[in-house]
């Protein structure tokens, strides 16, 4: 497994496994505590695993947590997603930086997203399963959502949106979220 820094988001990493393929399919390690530790992360900090299943065109996000935030490892275990990270940490050298990834079940790459960054994705295949390993138990009172189509972010979503939650549809702009965080 190889860990690569994400230049557009300070503290973010892409973990790429080495699959072993043969006539049966493939096998790969999707989490390795030693590799995670080698980039300065605590592998024991993750306390919750979650999974979402989405159909083609579904958009989830942009989400983040208030308070201490939430760091997470994200992987598309089946299908393919267009994944987005936005750095919203005011003290970060990559503040307001954006990074885009195509995560897929073929590669099983895992993206580490530091606390304080917004995250979202769009399913590119008929079925896309996305796994999350999160460093804090979920508290709905800390949920923050930013409009996926905010012109300031200009995220190049690859497909028309076929479905999204009401919360995501009604999300405020980035400017509104930042103003609320400062106030």
UniProtKB/TrEMBL annotation:
Q: Does the keyword Chaperone apply?
A: no
Note the PANTHER family from the entry: DTDP-6-DEOXY-D-GLUCOSE-3,5 EPIMERASE, THYMIDINE DIPHOSPHO-4-KETO-RHAMNOSE 3,5-EPIMERASE
Where does this protein come from, organism-wise? Streptomyces rugosispiralis
Where do the TM regions start and end? none
Q: One Pfam family, short name please?
A: dTDP_sugar_isom
| Keyword tags | Isomerase
The family annotation for this protein states: Belongs to the dTDP-4-dehydrorhamnose 3,5-epimerase family.
Which domain of life, per UniProt? Bacteria
Q: What is this protein called?
A: dTDP-4-dehydrorhamnose 3,5-epimerase family protein
């Amino acid at each position: 497994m190889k860990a690569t820094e994400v230049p557009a988001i300070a503290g973010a990493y892409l973990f790429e496994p080495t699959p072993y393929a043969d006539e049966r399919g493939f096998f790969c390690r999707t989490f390795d505590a030693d590799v995670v530790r080698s980039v300065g992360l605590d592998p024991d900090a993750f306390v919750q695993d979650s999974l979402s299943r989405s159909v083609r065109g579904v958009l989830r996000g942009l989400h983040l947590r208030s308070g201490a935030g939430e760091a997470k490892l994200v992987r598309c275990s089946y299908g393919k997603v267009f994944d987005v990270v936005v750095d919203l940490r005011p003290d970060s050298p990559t503040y307001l930086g954006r990074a885009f990834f195509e995560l897929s079940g073929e590669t099983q790459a895992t993206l580490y997203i530091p606390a304080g960054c917004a995250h979202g994705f769009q399913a590119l295949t008929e079925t896309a399963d996305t796994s999350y390993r999160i460093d804090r138990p979920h508290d709905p009172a800390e949920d923050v959502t930013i409009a996926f189509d905010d012109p300031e972010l200009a995220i190049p979503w690859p497909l028309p949106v076929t479905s999204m939650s009401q919360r995501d549809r009604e999300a405020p702009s980035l400017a509104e979220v930042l103003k609320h965080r400062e106030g």
